[in-house]
Amino acid sequence: MPIYYPDADLNNSSSFSSLEKRAVASLASLYGFRMLGLFMVLPILALYMDDYPGFSPLLLGVCLGIYGLTQAALQIPLGLLSDKIGRRPVIVGGLLVFIFGSLVAASAETSAGLIVGRAIQGAGAIASTLMALVSDLTREENRTKAMANIGASIGVSFVLAMIFGPVIATALGLSGVFWVTALLGCLGIIIFLRWVPKAVTVQRNRETHTDLQQIRGLLKDPSLLRLNFGVFALHLILMAAFVVIPALLSEELGIVGADLWWVYLLLLGGGFVAMLPAMIIGEKLQRQKLSFTTAVVCVTLAMLLLALFRGPLLTPIMLLLFFAAFNLLEASLPSWLSKVCPAGRKGTAMGIYSTCQFFGAFVGGVLGGWSVQQLGVDSLFLLLAAIGFVWWLLALGLEAPKAMQTVVLNSGDIAYEDFAKLILKVPGVEDILVVRGEQLAYAKVNKKTVDMSGLKPYLNL
Questions:
Q1: Are residues 158 and 200 in the same domain?
Q2: 434 pairs with which residues across the strands?
Q3: Are 256 and 373 in contact (CB under 8 A)?
Q4: CA 407, CA 390: separation in Å to the nearest integer?
Q5: Which of 175, 186, 299, 425 is the most buried (most CB within 10 A)?
Q6: CA 161, 166, 171, 173: dihedral to nearest 10 degrees?
Q7: What is the pLDDT of residues 361-415, one digit of tens each?
Q8: CATH assignment at residue 445
């Protein structure tokens, strides 16, 4: 969840301007098309890749997760490059790389060719650059809503991918899925060039940009370490599970490829409905830690029972429990990070977080494939349950997050030392980052106790 940038009234934020509406709608569509293409292979790769020469469960896992390795390696560098040469060339270049990777995979005749194509797909790592462009094209007070729209497009893409992947694969085969993915990349370029407005000015904002000098300090923060391990473990478990979930549904439950789409729709839709009450109650009653750790227990329990007691009734129930817990954790982790991240460091912290997320997907794919090949399906689920248990132990050390938010301020001509002292005197301000030579400052405030009237003259609107 992106951080909230308030105006003077915490209960009323500005509506989108026409330019902002156009920017958010086009970028959310672009992001959604790209992620739809990446996700569509998840529910069907395990069912179709064994037709390719050189297939093995290990290579299946590598093919599933390899995009995460190239994403993790290139996301921060490409984001920094976009700061220097501009967002548009990096985004268009990344989409062209994504399209090329899709074409390589669509034309592949061996398992190795599929892996190369997936790796190239991930090398078009433009997620952080797209988020930075959202910041360039929206005002501070509207940025939370803009980021929420992007996040919603990712969630919708995941659900649609679980539906369209099996449908397209049934009609056109695995190569057809990659041809459609390449088409989606082309649509993304058209949307970007035709509808995304050009940023007139770019203001460096440490809440959305990466600063390499902040990385070492953030890697030592105990709360951020636990959250980064959490997203690493969550996507490790997800990708490793998808090494075997399609086979469980088709071979053990007898659900053929043409029917997989409605099974995934029921599992994901049911999981979403099941997680909403837990998340809402946790937020309203300030019991986020309880709902969070309970969700980790649910993931762990689902993996354990899938290892020990699979069957026509229990397997769908455990998968439903897993997807419900996954949805809650996927939404809770970035929200929690934004609340505990030190002021003015969220851009860098989110870069580290996303790198851990993608690297977890890579490790999960490789670990899942290796485990199935060497140890079997039951042992894989036991291993994933053990990882979930370690995550639960670490999560117990998290402190419940306060109702915090970061406010971006403009110091004007006031000396940075004097400005920091001035802002820290305002009730409810708990931390501030003021950098010599920069006009923007970043104050961490408690939403329940902050006196916004003391900050109103300095808000960066």
A1: yes
A2: 441
A3: no
A4: 35
A5: 299
A6: 90
A7: 999 999 999 999 999 999 999 999 999 999 999 999 998 777 777 788 888 778 7
A8: 3.30.70
